[in-house]
Design a protein that fits this description.
Elements lengths: L3 H14 L12 H8 L3 H13 L3 E3 L5 E3 L5 E3 L6 H7 L4 E12 L2 H7 L6 E11 L2 E10 L1 H9 L7 H9 L5 E10 L2 H7 L6 E10 L5 E9 L5 E3 L21
Parallel strand pairs: 3-10
Antiparallel strand pairs: 1-2, 4-5, 5-6, 6-9, 7-8, 8-9
């Protein structure tokens, strides 16, 4: 069962997404929210803080919270899998394996996963859905030490991250993310329900264990109308880095 503040945040988020609270409108005051949900001030503040961290609300002219946006947003301030992020924010998530196969590692696989040239990897294509609509394709490559465990997971396993932690104690601790845009190919278009050639938001990520061992390399492609990425930085801390595209760099 989700924490009370997460449930309150879910209800308010649904109100924002459905335009019950349109962009530019004020959320109810803290006392009003406390009465509506029968919750303590601290619980209400936790819920509001969560929505603020997502970039959905902000403060203008005093303490009243103003709706800033009504898109789903994923922050990179902390490392969460897609399933963990969806559960945290109250979305209904579904997952299914479209295909998986063992194959020889490519040059990119060897570099990203620190493998020898003769290594065999497991490649998995998953379709992820939020609230009943497909929003994400994950093309994930796993190193040999995880291949057997991944193959034993059910095809509709929602959180690979949680399953690996529970089954074998593997923890995904660090992540590197590269973000750009690509055109949807025929498979992307069919599985995401978009036109071929439509722009997709791509996230290439490499995740490692606490000791720095690469555990997965993934090419994730989002429908652009489904999720936005949130980067909140300051003069003191900037988690987002711009990298030049080098001609000939594998994508």
């Amino acid at each position: 069962m989700p924490a009370r503040y997460a449930e309150i945040a879910r209800v308010l988020r649904e109100g924002i997404m459905s335009a019950t609270y349109p962009v530019g409108a004020h959320l109810p005051s803290e006392p009003e929210l406390m009465r509506t949900f029968g919750a303590a001030r601290g619980t209400v503040r936790q819920a509001v803080t969560l929505l603020a961290a997502e970039g959905l609300i902000g403060v203008r002219q005093g303490a009243r919270r103003v709706v800033l946006r009504n898109e789903r947003s994923q922050s990179f301030a902390e490392l969460h899998s897609f399933a963990q992020w969806a559960h945290l924010h109250g979305y209904e998530i579904a997952s299914r394996v479209h295909s998986q196969r063992r194959r020889p590692a490519t040059e990119v696989d060897c570099r990203k996963l620190n493998l020898s040239a003769d290594a065999q990897v497991l490649e998995v294509l998953r379709v992820r859905s939020l609230d009943g609509e497909p929003v994400l394709l994950e093309r994930t490559v796993y190193p040999p030490f995880l291949a057997d465990e991944i193959e034993q997971l059910p095809a509709d396993c929602v959180s690979v991250t949680e399953s690996l932690r529970e089954r074998v104690g593997t923890i995904f601790a660090y992540g590197e993310h590269l973000i750009d845009a690509v055109a949807a190919g025929s498979t992307d278009a069919r599985l995401l329900g978009v036109r071929r050639g439509s722009p997709l938001l791509r996230q290439r990520r490499t995740t490692t264990t606490p000791d720095g061992t690469p555990a997965e390399y993934s090419d994730d492609r989002y429908r652009p109308d489904s999720v936005t990425f949130s980067i909140r930085n300051s003069v003191g801390e900037n988690p987002l880095h711009r990298l030049p595209l080098t001609p000939g760099t594998p994508r």
